[in-house]
Backbone:
């Protein structure tokens, strides 16, 4: 099949493997393969397990296209076209159940590849994405023929970006997200060894995958990779042992399920002061706004809480990204969406006052939220007062940021909570008097209409909250 659009842009995150590189051509996602990687691809496509994974949706849709010249003038031996992921997310934006499901999929793929003579040369969490509540493996270029007598090359990456964060959450109750956000290569074994001392050394998975792994890594620090492989082959390391190791990891990860705990925000819909009439009016307003937008390609639900309005949006849009700060609430939402096999709503953990920045090499290897968040419709329901009153973000800055989240010609549905609302009074309770003199409805409306075109508004029956539907552009 021919490529229908000219190649335009190299994917900033695709530079670590010289054998294959990802490019974007309009809406197409393409991967160029060198001669060796092309041979691996043809062998992979001829197996039974790989087409089955594609059919099951566990590996992103992939097809070969006619090789062509790419922007740097390099001619690849083969070119693949991949299914586009509706919204790219990062592991430090996932809940613990999402990270665990991603780890289990990675191991399942490896267990199905090894008997067919294939392995994956990477084990990074970044090789997976989510399509709604379902993980999908995206790094097709990671598959290569297995060499008997050699260990899984992706083991260290798997530990650092998937297993170690899960151990921290399951055994210590730690939030793994700040560590993954701060370190693009994940949590180092030495960091883990310092945390798992004393009786913690005996917790499931820790003796083998933290302490023994760290000791082996230190012992082989001066040895070349080929030397280590030769030693393992001489010791009788086999494909059967590799399979046993992966099965052991699979059993361990299955045990690392940590159900979400009670959270202050878990019952926000009942405690925020809405009446039944408020909720009904709000839902009708949101539904009408989405209908007016045609069939939005992407909706952002900022401050999604339990996903009530994300589910409303999913009835009218191709895809919805539901962003919520509380990881326990997101974990609960994800589990509910997973149970429903919902593939159009992606829940993410993110503090809207501190959204994910760009990271990795030159700050662009992992795109920041602002670079990914151009949505056809943005829902900012019960968000503005938390940013303005709770986090001291000036109202003009809040609205500027919401405008940045909208695609050209997009729409914003935003809720203003009046100063007299019970939730607003609660946020103001511990603030100095007079700190927010501009937090008034009149000021908000003036700022809103200076940035957007007002289409309609609604005062909710309680009288302390107002909804606005506005459009980007004059």
Residues:
């Amino acid at each position: 099949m021919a490529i229908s659009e000219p190649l335009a842009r190299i994917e900033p995150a695709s530079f670590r493997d010289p054998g294959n590189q990802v490019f974007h051509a309009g809406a197409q996602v393409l991967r160029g393969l060198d001669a060796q990687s092309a041979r691996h691809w043809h062998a992979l496509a001829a197996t039974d397990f790989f087409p089955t994974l594609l059919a099951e949706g566990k590996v992103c849709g992939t097809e070969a296209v006619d090789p062509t010249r790419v922007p740097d003038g390099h001619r690849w031996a083969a070119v693949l076209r991949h299914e586009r992921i509706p919204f790219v997310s990062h592991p430090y934006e996932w809940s613990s159940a999402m990270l665990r499901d991603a780890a289990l999929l990675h191991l399942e793929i490896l267990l199905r590849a090894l008997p067919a003579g294939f392995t994956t040369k990477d084990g990074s969490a970044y090789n997976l994405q989510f399509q709604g509540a379902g993980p999908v493996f995206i790094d097709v270029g990671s598959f290569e023929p297995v060499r008997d007598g050699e260990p899984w090359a992706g083991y260290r990456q798997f530990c650092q970006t998937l297993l170690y964060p899960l151990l921290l959450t399951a055994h210590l109750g730690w939030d793994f997200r700040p560590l993954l956000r701060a370190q693009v290569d994940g949590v180092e074994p030495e960091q883990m060894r310092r945390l798992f001392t004393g009786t913690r050394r005996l917790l499931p998975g820790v003796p083998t995958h933290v302490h023994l792994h760290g000791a082996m890594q230190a012992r082989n620090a001066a040895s070349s990779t080929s030397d280590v492989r030769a030693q393992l082959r001489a010791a009788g390391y086999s494909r059967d042992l590799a399979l046993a190791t992966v099965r052991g990891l699979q059993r361990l990860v299955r045990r690392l399920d940590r159900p979400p705990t009670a959270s202050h925000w878990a019952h926000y819909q009942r405690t925020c002061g809405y009446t039944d009439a408020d909720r009904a009016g709000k839902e009708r307003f949101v539904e009408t706004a989405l209908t007016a937008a045609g069939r939005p390609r992407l909706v952002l639900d900022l401050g999604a809480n339990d996903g009530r309005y994300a589910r409303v949006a999913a009835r009218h849009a191709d895809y919805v990204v539901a962003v919520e700060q509380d990881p326990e609430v997101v974990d609960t939402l994800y589990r509910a969406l997973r149970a429903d096999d919902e593939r159009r709503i992606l829940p993410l953990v993110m503090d809207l006052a501190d959204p994910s920045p760009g990271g990795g090499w030159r700050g662009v290897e992992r795109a920041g939220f602002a670079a990914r968040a151009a949505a056809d419709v943005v829902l900012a329901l019960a968000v503005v007062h938390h940013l303005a009153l709770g986090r001291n973000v000036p109202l003009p800055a809040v609205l500027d940021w919401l405008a940045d989240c909208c695609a050209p010609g997009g729409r914003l549905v935003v809720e203003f909570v009046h100063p007299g609302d019970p939730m607003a009074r609660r946020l103001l309770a511990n603030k100095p008097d007079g700190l927010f003199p501009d937090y008034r409805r009149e000021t908000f409306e003036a700022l809103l209409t200076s940035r957007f075109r007002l289409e309609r508004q609604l005062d909710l029956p309680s009288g302390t909250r107002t909804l606005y539907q506005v459009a980007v552009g004059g």
Remarks:
- The first helix runs from residue 35 to 45.
- The chain has a mean pLDDT of 90.
- Residues 299 and 320 are 5 Å apart (CA to CA).
